[in-house]
Structures are given as C-alpha cells and as structure tokens.
C-alpha cells in the first residue's frame, strides 16, 4: 500500500462547499482509478487548512493517478474550478509502517473520533525504522492506556518533504473535555516522560496538529450521532 498526504489551503468561508464538491465530484472520479479516501480533516486553530489522506494499492496506481491528473479532460476542468476553494496543495507520498491500519481495517474497526492528533516527526538519518518500531512497541501501548488509538503511521517516500519525516495519526476523543482528560492522564504518566527522553535519540523535532473529523464522507470522522448534531447546528 501507498498513501497520499495532502495539505490544502482553503479559501475562507468556502470550506463546506469545497467538501460538498469533493464528495459529489472529485471522490467518485478518483475512486475509478484506485484512489481511496482515508481521511478528510479540518485543521484546528489553523482554520484555512485541511488535510486529506488517501490510500493507493501500489506505485502503478500512483502512475495512473499522475496520468489522470495530467491528461484527463475532466481533471483539467476540476483544477480550474477547484481554485475557487483552495489556493495551495502540498503533497507527500507515504509508505505505511507494517502495523499501520489499512483502510479496510479502519472501516471494520472503531476509529471514529471528533478529534485526531496529527504528529509529524523529523527523524535523524538512518533512524526511521528504529523510530517506527518504537512507536509500535512502546508508544502504542502507552497511548492506549490514555484512551488513544493509532489510526496510521507512515514514512515519507516522495513529494514535497524531507525523506526522514514520519507521520502518525491518533484518535483523541469525541469532546473537548475528553481530550482534556486524555492530556491530563498522559502528563501524569511517567511513561510519557520516559518516551519523550527516548524519542530524542531518534528525532530532532515533532510538530502536532489537531484534526477535526467533521467531513461526513470521510472514513476517519466523528461518530454519526455527533456529526448529525453538528450538521443540525450549522443549519439552524
């Protein structure tokens, strides 16, 4: 499997319309050539930013996607129309860690959450495999005790990125209070301090973002009953 990570800069006040045309127009078209949506998120605090995560079978599927983007007439029209909603897109091709859930596993499992924690670590050269193995063996069990579950772990393979970047996405609760409880539990856990100390051997920097699972057609999203309540609030 391969994954495509896109950071999108959205034109202010067009986000809902952008999500709508993504669902009705873009997603059905790219699904035909093997691009499958894993997650479409609003980035918390940075309200003009969205992150999209897609799954592909292999490098051949990525080739088909590139040809589609370069030559397909529908895609050329989409590029012109999408300028109304987004002004920039930074893409990265990611390879998953062996323990990273696939889309099929996500669809079968319990990965729905209102908040997701998006972590991007810059790892020292030659330390990527060690770092990802440590995430599996040490951080995943620790985070589970805090109430968090790993939704994805990837290393950069190509694109506008550093080859030593490692991405991980974690469920982070359904309500702000739930995240507060997770955060308090983690801060009081001596295992977190031990992890941070050990992680410094593998990485020189890590950046955190909150992702909001507000998009109804995204496999990674908030629970249906909460999403329905949010949509009713928007209407009324």
What descriptors fit this protein?
single chain, about 240 residues, alpha+beta, Alpha-Beta Plaits, 8-stranded antiparallel β-barrel, 8 strands, about 40% helix
Topology:
Elements (H helix, E strand, L loop, with lengths): L1 E9 L4 H17 L4 E8 L5 E8 L2 H13 L1 H10 L3 E11 L6 H6 L6 E9 L4 H19 L3 E10 L5 E7 L4 H13 L1 H10 L3 E10 L11 H12 L1
Antiparallel strand pairs: 1-3, 1-4, 2-3, 2-8, 4-6, 5-7, 5-8, 6-7
Helix pairs in contact: 5-7
Describe the structure.
- This protein is α+β, with helices and mostly antiparallel strands and 236 residues long.
- The protein has a single domain, classed as Alpha-Beta Plaits (2-Layer Sandwich), CATH 3.30.70.
- Helices cover 42% and strands 31% of the residues.
- The protein has eight helices and eight strands.
- An eight-stranded antiparallel beta barrel has the order 1-3-2-8-5-7-6-4.
- The chain is globular.
The side-by-side strand order for the widest beta sheet comes to 1-3-2-8-5-7-6-4
Radius of gyration: 18 Å
Largest sheet: 8 strands, antiparallel, barrel
Q: Give the total of domains.
A: 1
End-to-end separation in angstroms reads 42 Å
- Counting DSSP E segments of at least 2 residues, the number of strands comes to 8
Quick description:
This protein is of the alpha+beta class. It has helices at 15-31, 59-71, 73-82, 103-108, 128-146, 176-188, 190-199, 224-235, and strands spanning 2-10, 36-43, 49-56, 86-96, 115-123, 150-159, 165-171, 203-212. Strand 2 (36-43) and strand 3 form a beta hairpin.
